[in-house]
Amino acid sequence: MANVLFLDTQEKSAYLAMSLFRGLGHRGSISNEHGDARAKLETALFDIVYVDICSKDPVADFLFVQYAATRLPGAPILRVVDSGLALPPQPVFADLVRPLTLDRLMDVARRATARLADLCMERRRFRRKDVSVEVTIGCEDRKTPARAVNLSLGGALVELPGFDVVIDPDSVLSLSLLTARRRLELRAQIAYAGIFPSGAPHLGLVFTGIGPEQMDGIQSVLEAA
Questions:
Q1: Domain made up of 3-125: CATH architecture
Q2: Which residue has the higher pLDDT, 210 or 33?
Q3: How crowded is the C-beta side of 121, counted as CA atoms within 13 Å?
């Protein structure tokens, strides 16, 4: 199962594309602003990046593509473009030229997913893995048991027990991650929220103030997964 980040400032194609990726069993998160998309990339939880290039002002989108390629070396990046738009050379996996067709989207989605196993070695620093780790999330005296389903050196994807969990989106959260050897105490901020295809709510967290000992602990969980 892949995590796909969609950036679509004009809301042209991302919702259709996410439905297709979900149909293939993947998870997705849509951003309509560059700052929001960059914050999500900081979690290092995403495997594929999909960018619908705004034809009226494409420069900001092209800059984001370059940033994504830097943050996630080797990750498949898909650009959706208008016919005739001048494209700068960028390390993208595929360009989809409008008008889009479901067959073309499906083909590129399948090929991008297959490419994940062949990512270049540089991405090992940003790798994320599927895990099933019990965590406690919250701030101050309000703590909630939950489950981390993805983990990277940059953040965690946490499945919440229900929709009645109340968390201030701007707060710095404490995250207790229970491993086979010890309990890791981490701090994180919410980068994004969403709903899994199963209907369960989730939070994408980006770690903050991680020290060498905590980084080693996260690395040990990744290596054991």
A1: 3-Layer(aba) Sandwich (3.40)
A2: 33
A3: 0
CA distances from 161 to 157, 183, 189 (A): 13, 20, 19
**43-83 pLDDT per residue, tens:** 989 999 999 999 888 999 999 999 999 988 888 999 999 99
The model's pTM: 0.84
Q: Which residues contact 40 (CB under 8 A, 6 or more apart)?
A: 5, 29, 31, 46, 191, 192, 204
Provide CB contacts within 8 A for 15, sequence distance 6+.
Answer: 8, 30
Question: What's 126-166 look like in SS3?
Answer: HCEEEEEEEEEEEECCEEEEEEEEEEECCEEEEECCCCCCC
Percent of the chain, pLDDT > 90?
44
Q: Which of 123, 148, 118 is nearest to 221 (CA)?
A: 148
The DSSP secondary-structure symbol of 169 reads T
Q: Which fold has domain 127-224?
A: Thrombin, subunit H (2.40.10)
Strand 142-152 relative to strand 77-81, pairing: unpaired
6 vs 169: CA distance, rounded Å:
21
**pLDDT band per the 50, 70, 90 thresholds, residue 195:** confident
Strand order in the sheet with 94-97: 27-31, 3-8, 48-52, 77-81, 94-97
- Reference 68, options 86, 88, 42; nearest CA is 42
Domain locations in the chain?
3-125, 127-224
Whether 22 has a pLDDT exceeding 50, the answer reads: yes
